[in-house]
Amino acid sequence: PTVAAAFDEAVLWLANHKDVSVITGDCGFMFWFVERVRKIASKKCISLSPLMQLPGMAAACGPKDKILVLTANGNSLNPMRDLIKRQCGVDSQDTKFIFVGCEHVPYFGEEVANGSKVNEGKAEPGIVQLTEEMVRKYPNTRMILFECTELPPYSDAVREATRLPVMDAITNCDFFMQAFLDNGKFGLNGWYEEWDGVQEEYVMGQNLDEGQKLQCIWCVKTDVHQFLM
């Protein structure tokens, strides 16, 4: 209940913020909360997981084509089947979708499972190798989706190795961002205020009170005060 209340409070803050257009998440398994978020932020676009790109990907593929979906752990997505069908309109058990877990990839699977830091340089060859093996096994693979938000660092390497489109948490956000931005090449121009390039200073946890910081794992492990001095 405590976690749920904090989650709802965060979503409500985003829902009431005039500068928020889309709500997403930094973990694919936030998809479990998508229906909860929709109820609170009913006037915002919600795309909590890269999985929400599946309908468009499926529409772009032929009846016999395959879509390869890489996730941190292959078994973890099974319980989501009904939720994926309700929210995305696709059946994850359809033979079109090939779900593959990365739990046995060296320098990646165990680290993600334990919540420890992943050495991207060491993990990349294993991610690429696994993807190439699956593409060879399923030669009708036309697109690839990285469900896990820890996989985007390897998207370019997989694109280069397979020459296939790779969708991930970044392309999920880009889809919405590009839809809001001005197209300077044609059409009405001058209506959109350009970003000045100055990033607002923010340290994770700075908006939390002392009690909330004690509930934040990152804040407890890291002395957040040293960054606020």
Description of the structure:
By secondary structure, this protein is α/β, with parallel strands linked by helices. Helix content is 42%, strand content 10%. The chain contains 11 helices and 6 strands. It has helices at residues 2-16, 34-40, 54-60, 81-88, 109-114, 120-137, 155-162, 169-180, 210-215, 217-221, 225-228; strands spanning 22-23, 45-46, 66-71, 97-101, 141-146, 166-167. Strands 4-3-5-6 form a 4-stranded parallel β-sheet, sandwiched between helices. Strands 1-2 form a two-stranded parallel sheet. Strand 3 (66-71), helix 4 (81-88) and strand 4 (97-101) form a beta-alpha-beta unit. Helix 6 runs parallel beside helix 7. The protein is globular and about 50 Å long. The model has no long low-confidence stretch (mean pLDDT 90).
Strand order of the largest sheet: 4-3-5-6
Range of helix content: 40-55%
As a percent range, the share of strand residues is 5-15%
The number of helical elements comes to: 11
Task: Describe the oligomeric state of these chains in a short phrase.
Answer: single chain
The helix/strand series, from N terminus to C terminus, equals HEHEHEHEHHEHEHHHH
Low-confidence region ranges = none
Query: What's the overall geometry?
Result: globular
* Rg, nearest Å: 19 Å
Q: Report mean pLDDT, rounded to a whole number.
A: 90
What gap, in angstroms, lies between the N and C termini? Answer: 34 Å
Number of beta-strand segments: 6
Main structural class: alpha/beta
Main β-sheet description: 4 strands, parallel
